[in-house]
Amino acid sequence: MTQHSLLCACAGLGLLLAACSTNDRAASTPPPKELKVTYTELKLRTDFVHAGAAFAPGAAAKLGAFLDNAGVTSDDHVYVEAARGDRLAAQRIGRISRELTRRGIGARVLPAVDEGVGTDQLLVKVERYVVTPPKCPDWTKSPLYGQHDNQVASNFGCATTSNLGLMVADPRDLTVGRTMGPKEGDPAIAGIARYRDGKPKPLPGSSSGGSDYSPVTIQMPGGGGGGSSGQ
How much is the pTM? Predict the structure, then answer.
């Protein structure tokens, strides 16, 4: 075998070993811990009397049972949907809104639709996002770093991800997020204005006349007596 052939063979063997090592590291890398957010939707078609804005017989009780069984609270996303062409939609939406407000529940009105809502009906929809934490703890891989594969333990990220799923107020924020409202800057502006005008607010417990000031008595060790100091 010539020297050139030997070098080529060594180079090929080195590339093969490197590829095998990379594949082994990829196979031993544990998947990242992630939260699973599931979307659920609850619907109720509420009936109204024909050509009127009052509930049909038994519709109010049916609506109340729906809200109670689903455990709907002010934290849920509740929507009301009417059929297109319903001339009494505004009055009927107001009737349902009063019933929801009485329970401390707010609702948003969706655009009218052509299908899914019958005549003399309104659709009450409750949207929820349920978060499921990862399977933790995960000790499928030894926590000891004696394998020299430069990979994290299988339990890495469990605490952080699980705690996020448990403490999030609205799981919907994990997928959709929410629009931030305008910030109130008047207190900060007022403080700057007082500073520039030379009229800052006094500190709590202080007075402008200095009558609350009292000297501090300091006993010096070995001094044979005491003295008063304003420091």
Answer: 0.58
